[in-house]
């Protein structure tokens, strides 16, 4: 399973409230949710993230709430991949179970600059960046299977 | 190598085989809770995938706490969808508008028992660790899946052991303790871990205090936070007329990835300053910061004991001019007890506004959102940018006593100064008060 995108860089401890504010929790359709993605951080970031389809973040991405809107709003906007140094555990689960690819690889984050074209092979565990390639430990097969199917329900 | 942590022991029972930290397992938790903020999505998954039966309706409970009563037509709509879903599938446990927060109800009614595992579409589900259970937040797609099929993948977490010694000084609370722990370990210090609390100080901590302690485990990244069952736990269930059998405890020699130690006697009132929870400082170093709103409530600190201490701070006094004091009981039961004890009357006389039991202002949805450039001091658990509905507002997290003292002064203040002046330290025995 190979994915690519143009990187939008984010920092450490990006929480679910800045990814998707609580007052929109009753918005159920992922395309509608994507209109509120990163609202506290500004419309420009939202547009850049969606255009590039790839987020690159620091430690503990997605900390805070269990709201899966923070994952599905990204999918609704066309974002398919997040590379981070680490993920908060509920965000990680929500990503796998909704078909958003997540790669935990600190070495890759070190190599990536804003706007870089990045490609990932999830099954092989390889990231290609303009400044070289890095290997990472692929997800366990049972999780990779769910992710590749497009999420838990699609894997039925 | 058969010695197990609490997480390994409880997950082994559910997996029906011995499991170790790091393993992926399929299991069906004892409880699957869903809330108003996610129930509309459960309904959506069921419609999209044609689900017409549930694996185990008796393991399900639904709670309306995030926007109760509904404040927008959309919120009213998802609550309606949820009620229809409960009726269609024969879900008996629907805790509708006004009953309170899921975690509070789960513990105060004895619904969750020691040794059980709870999943809930709420990140603060770790709170049930206060009664020797393990609880974690999950997403809605997997919650709908659990409702339909009863089994889901989980990873068995490694564990951290936090030993507590000594005793909290008067005017210092479990909130100050947990803020101190997060300040030392950081917002990712327990990532993917189960935090187990141990040590002689636990005997001095009530169920309410243990709830605060476990609740904020998620703010350092933990999957579970748990206090193994003891006499305090047993007394809690005895008070509810519930017989609990054997309560699981970790084995001596179980493996802990990290061990930490805290002396409760050395803890002082703390605040978490904007806008990361581990930005923790002694109240004294932030004293004088002007506030516009003070909020006492939430699954972290919206319990009877929290309103009692706030009432002691504010008895016979009034909150400062220009400060809004918003008070939100965590449940209807808490609300009634605080009425009966007089705590709510004291708070209302001091100028407080009381809102519907539930999550209240914490999640930035309703009942106390902030304006740009405003400062709120809150007994809740998150001070993220925009958390209380405005990205240009600032949130300080503190104990109910500190929030009350700050409301009184109109600026961040150490509650010990007020409490010492009022002689309140002599009456802090909450166990003598009516249940």
Main β-sheet, spatial strand arrangement of chain B: 4-3-2-5-6
What's the SSE pattern of chain A?
Answer: EHHHEHEHEHEEEH
Query: Biggest β-sheet of chain B: count, sense, barrel?
Result: 5 strands, parallel
Provide the β-strand percentage band of chain B: 15-25%
Mean pLDDT of chain B: 96
Low-confidence stretches of chain B: 426-435
Q: Biggest interface, and residues per chain? A: A-B, 39 and 47 residues
Please tell me the total number of domains of chain B.
2
Strand order of the largest sheet of chain A: 4-3-2-1-5-6-7
Question: Separation of termini of chain A?
Answer: 19 Å
CATH architecture of the largest domain in chain B: 2-Layer Sandwich
Strand-pairing-aware structural class of chain B: alpha/beta
CATH topology term of chain A: Aconitase, domain 4
Q: How far from one another are the termini of chain B?
A: 44 Å
Q: At the third CATH level, what is the topology name of the largest domain in chain B?
A: Aconitase, domain 3
Explain this structure to me?
The complex is a heterodimer of chains A (156) and B (435). Chain A is α/β, with parallel strands linked by helices. Chain A contains seven helices and seven strands, in the order βαααβαβαβαβββα. Chain B has a five-stranded parallel sheet with strand order 4-3-2-5-6. A five-stranded parallel sheet of chain B has the order 16-15-14-17-18. The interface between A and B is large, with 39 and 47 residues.
